């Protein structure tokens, strides 16, 4: 196994040797320490917008206190973009130093794949090849894992392509796990809420994905926003209890409640304009969201909270959302 991953790395190095991608590690043969993986609730913050004047790329630790995972957005099939690109552009020594500092503070650093700009299944990309390529990016740029923000919203509703997306995701997830073993690397997915609603997708969307490869996925950063029409998730009831894909509905459908991380926009500018215009863009002000979280915890949920994105999502936002719920 070591031999084969080394030879894969070597092959990739040859391929990349002529490009600007930073892959070298000062100790390429040294076994890597396992990535820190939060064992309790996950508090995940995305960073896509560059942070002005910040040579360390990541949101400053004192501004994201309480979060334990940072998701760098986004890694696409043609390479890293935005904050993922900024991270990859650091020299290896600097990057490893920053990573150690964040890990020491209890914060894992993960890259997020795709987002709304790439539809890899529709584009016909091979899931195994792409998973191998993206795993190498994780290894080469000193990351703690990968988040799969696959947003094929039209494909999953296409009755002529029944199960195509679900199958692609299963193969992609299995291939990622082969390279990034469970317990050593974080592997999360970031589906939108309705994809857990029974009958919403002809192929079952994430209810199918969870049945086939859910055991390989550490948790779901569920986007309870960025969609219309209803349920909207704009109040505690549609977020937690009603509509078919609220948190406790998803649990009833058979998904481990400890994997259902509640994702929300940090500020209104993190919801698309179309979603703001539509009723139920999913934005809930942090104080109100805090009351929902408290309700969820008292009903047996404690998976955690995700927010898109820094700087709207910061220590102040999270403190208000957490309250004393997780104390
Ligand atoms: C968080 O962001 C808000 C503005 O959205 C700002 O007022 C506050 O000072 C920030 N908090 C921290 C700890 O950076």
Describe this structure in words.
- Residues 1-24 form the signal peptide.
- This protein has 327 residues and is of the alpha/beta class.
- It has a single domain (33-322), classed as Glycosidases (TIM Barrel).
- 34% of the residues lie in helices and 15% in strands.
- An 8-stranded parallel barrel has the order 1-2-4-5-6-7-8-9, surrounded by 4 helices.
- Helix 4 (127-140) packs parallel to helix 5 (164-179).
- It is globular and about 50 Å long.
- Bound molecules: 2-acetamido-2-deoxy-beta-D-glucopyranose (NAG).
- 2-acetamido-2-deoxy-beta-D-glucopyranose binds next to helix 11.
- 2-acetamido-2-deoxy-beta-D-glucopyranose (NAG) is lined by residues 63, 311-312, 314-316.
